[in-house]
Design goal:
Elements lengths: L8 E3 L1 H23 L3 E6 L6 E4 L5 E3 L1 H6 L7 E6 L2 H11 L5 E5 L2 H9 L9 E7 L8 H10 L2 E7 L1 H7 L10 H11 L4 H5 E7 L5 E5 L2 H14 L10 E4 L5 E8 L3 H14 L6
């Protein structure tokens, strides 16, 4: 295959674990849906260039779209979306022409709602496994909530806590840039994140007014999990698995959400197996 190396993202050990997690669940999911006679699709909102460069081995490894295409029994269709033209070009050149693949250039916040989700409706006995793995705060809550309302979608979701902390969730919220705060609100769905992240400190300042105290990552993640259940309407959302960098700092949390208890059980088992893995 002929592709340009600059298109490839370098990924670390935990990103490779994420690929293993999604691949393992996709195989179980496709087996179950095939046995039950459902037309089922794979959806990737941030599909990338198709392959990645492993920081661990230095080798090229298949990305989530290629992993999905290799699943047996196969998905009936694959919807692969990316905003970057060079990634789309690379992905198309690697995959080639397949009747069961639609590569869609554009912003997944628009493409999913207008062009993809309408093709996997519950009433038409269609189901989908959707991976939303943004590079940061590049996803709108409406996409997540719409997927929950549809009842036909199982969802893997990257909750980008490191990007949030670096750009939006500062210790002094008034110092963060307005556009970064807007990104946070778009991802969360409203400004209720402020009440989750900031609360009055128990210690009084010199003016006898409480300073703001910032919540822990775990508290923010727990609140978002409740939103997936209570607001988006997913019935089952197991505790997410933290994804780390080489310094063991959490970069993001990988969420899973579904309407089926069997799906939650499968993912709990997968998460449990991978949660304590360690890289070099």
């Amino acid at each position: 295959m002929s592709v340009r190396r600059p298109d490839f993202d370098e990924i670390g050990y935990w990103s490779e674990i994420k690929l293993d997690i999604v691949k393992e669940y996709a195989k179980a999911y496709s087996s179950i849906l095939t046995k039950n006679g459902f037309h089922h699709s794979y959806i990737d909102g941030f599909a990338g260039a198709g392959v990645h460069l492993s920081k661990t081995t230095g080798e090229l490894i298949p990305g989530s779209p290629l992993n999905a295409l290799a699943i047996s029994p196969p998905f009936q269709h694959h919807f692969l979306i990316d905003l970057a033209g060079d990634r789309v070009e690379s992905l198309q050149s690697i995959i080639g022409e397949h009747s069961d693949v639609t590569v869609l250039p554009g912003d997944c916040n628009d493409v999913l709602l207008r062009r993809v989700f309408p093709q996997v409706l519950w009433k038409h006995r269609r189901r989908a496994l959707c991976l939303l793995d943004p590079y940061g705060l590049h996803l709108n809550w409406e996409v997540i909530a719409h997927a929950g309302r549809m009842r036909s979608i199982d969802l893997f979701l990257n909750f980008p806590v490191m990007d949030m902390n670096r750009n939006a969730l500062w210790s002094s919220p008034d110092r963060a840039r307005p556009d970064q705060l807007q990104r946070m609100t778009a991802f969360w769905g409203d400004e209720s994140w402020r009440e989750v992240v900031y609360r009055p400190s128990r210690q009084l300042s010199l003016l006898d007014e409480p300073d703001l105290e910032k919540a822990s990552n775990e508290e923010v993640v727990a609140a978002f999990r409740r939103r997936l259940l209570d607001i988006a309407g997913f019935q089952f959302v197991p505790e997410p698995i933290p994804m780390r960098n080489k310094r063991n700092a959490v970069v993001y949390y990988l969420f899973f959400a579904s309407q089926k208890s069997v799906a939650e059980k499968i993912v709990r088992d997968i998460f449990r197996k991978h949660r304590n893995r360690r890289g070099d």
